[in-house]
Amino acid sequence: MSATEVVKLYGAAWSAYVRIARLALEEKQVSYGLVEVDVFAKTGVPQEHLKRHPFGRIPAFEHGDFRLYETGAIVRYIDEAFPGCKLQPTDLKARAKMNQILGILDAYAYRTLVWDIYVERVVSTREGRLANEQKIAAALPRATVCLSELNRLTDDQAFLIGGGVTFADLYAAPMFACFMQAPEAASLMEGFEKLIHWWQRFAVRDSMSRTSP
């Protein structure tokens, strides 16, 4: 399959996981089209999208006639199918640490930082709803553990793992872009200097501005 075949990403610009895939495409300098899909439409997930992703989630991906869903599969394919910077460390231990960070972000941080804190505090206000204070309060201890571990695992370099962009950065950045908008973020991030410095550097990357929802 030629790297010049058309690349399409299906999903919503606001989605953290769609943005992960977009960041991978941007960092690899792959031209692509984002096709907006509303999986929360009142009429339900669009039927044509269920053909791309039978579980009705986003993103879904096409490269020519090759189709994929699941963010982890998509970003690994992007990294290996296209030329440019490598988004996975070649060093065995660095790659293992990167994969551990991805596991933490997927299993613990995403739900806690994005849904339980950002959505409840920021999105609910934007939509004129009352925040679920119990949900936020319950999320704070878990958020502290997530942030503490990310700070501990992070190399004290320009990026989360090593001296170049990896999947660890691409996964964490869209989640932090949401979480850092919540007023709770300032106190929760106190003392996590490596993480604060990483976010200050990564937030201003060209790939971040080009994928801003």
Helix content: 55-70%
Count of structural domains: 2
> Structural class of the secondary elements?
alpha+beta
Number of beta strands = 4
Describe it for me?
It comes from Paraburkholderia caledonica. It holds the Pfam family GST_N. Keywords: Transferase. This protein has 213 residues and is an alpha+beta fold. It contains nine helices and four strands; from the N terminus they run E-H-E-H-E-E-H-H-H-H-H-H-H. The protein folds into two domains: 7-81, Glutaredoxin; 92-210, Glutathione S-transferase Yfyf (Class Pi), Chain A, domain 2 (Up-down Bundle). The protein has helices spanning 16-27, 47-52, 71-81, 92-126, 133-153, 167-179, 184-188, 193-202, 206-210, and strands at residues 7-11, 33-36, 60-63, 66-69. A four-stranded mixed beta sheet has the order 2-1-3-4, covered by helices on one side. Strand 3 and strand 4 form a beta hairpin. The mean pLDDT is 96.
Q: How is this fold's topology laid out?
A:
Blueprint: E1 7-11, H1 16-27, E2 33-36, H2 47-52, E3 60-63, E4 66-69, H3 71-81, H4 92-126, H5 133-153, H6 167-179, H7 184-188, H8 193-202, H9 206-210
Parallel strand pairs: 1-2
Antiparallel strand pairs: 1-3, 3-4
Helix pairs in contact: 1-3, 1-6, 4-5, 4-6
Short characterization:
The protein is an alpha+beta fold and 213 residues long. The chain has nine helices and four strands.
